[in-house]
Specification:
It is an enzyme of class 1 (oxidoreductase). It holds the Pfam family FMN_red. The chain is an alpha/beta fold and 183 residues long. It is built from five helices and eight strands, in the order βαβαβαβαββββα. Strands 1, 2, 3, 4, 5 and 6 form a six-stranded parallel sheet that branches. Strand 1, helix 1 and strand 2 form a beta-alpha-beta unit. The chain is globular, with a radius of gyration of 16 Å. It binds ligand FNR. The site of ligand FNR has 16 residues, from helix 1.
Length: 183
């Protein structure tokens, strides 16, 4: 069965390493896992006053995309030992209206990415902390802390073979996780 995965990239940067990692995951995914990046750059900052009968069109479009997905892959850089504000905003937008969160009941997984040695551990775990509140089942293992990422890419090309092998294991495991939680 084909499963549709919404990939959320926490960086808005044109040459984002996190986006490259997301792209690698998309390329390595098994064929029955259809993965597509859902952009977060045009979401207005969440304001509860906007939660009327006619919320901003960008909110509705984003919630629809998330709601239709069978699972979510979060790929995030680390900003100040946490998630970037743009990603937090996308989580907040998708979490409302209360009781009807687009994210609810979806299986998910987290990949944190950094040019530094710690692989975005802080961002990874701050994100992990939000997920029970959204009633999302986050794949516990394997964990993905992609450190020293600059050395692993030559332009868009993933050149580190052990990283490629790990990404393959990770995305195959995620496919299994999504299948286990499929409705
Ligand atoms: C960073 N960076 C960073 N890196 C890290 O490992 N831990 C951190 O806490 C931070 N904090 C941080 C804050 C802010 C505001 C910026 C702009 C950057 C560096 C960051 O990992 C680096 O810029 C990455 O290249 C960002 O990811 P993308 O855009 O390449 O995906």
């Amino acid at each position: 069965t084909t499963r549709h995965i919404a990939v959320i990239v926490g960086s808005l940067r044109k040459d984002s390493f996190t986006r490259k990692v997301a792209q690698s995951m998309i390329e390595l995914a098994p064929t029955d896992l259809q993965m597509e990046i859902v952009e977060i750059r045009d979401l207005p900052l969440y304001n509860q006053d906007d939660e009327t009968d006619t919320p901003p069109a960008a909110f509705t479009a984003f919630r629809d995309r998330i709601g239709q997905a069978d699972g979510i892959l979060f790929c995030t850089p680390e900003y100040n030992r946490s998630v970037p504000g743009a990603l937090k905003n996308a989580i907040d937008v998708g979490s409302r209206p209360y009781g009807n969160a687009a994210y609810a009941d979806k299986p998910c997984a987290i990949v944190s990415v950094s040019p530094g040695a710690l692989g975005g551990f802080g961002a990874n775990h701050h994100l992990r902390q939000m997920l029970p509140f959204l009633n999302m089942s986050c794949m516990p293992a394997p964990e993905a802390y992609v450190g020293n990422v600059a050395a692993k890419y030559d332009g868009e090309r993933l050149v580190d073979e052990s990283t490629r092998a790990f990404f393959q294991t990770f995305i195959d495991s995620f496919a299994g996780w999504v299948e286990r939680h499929a409705k």
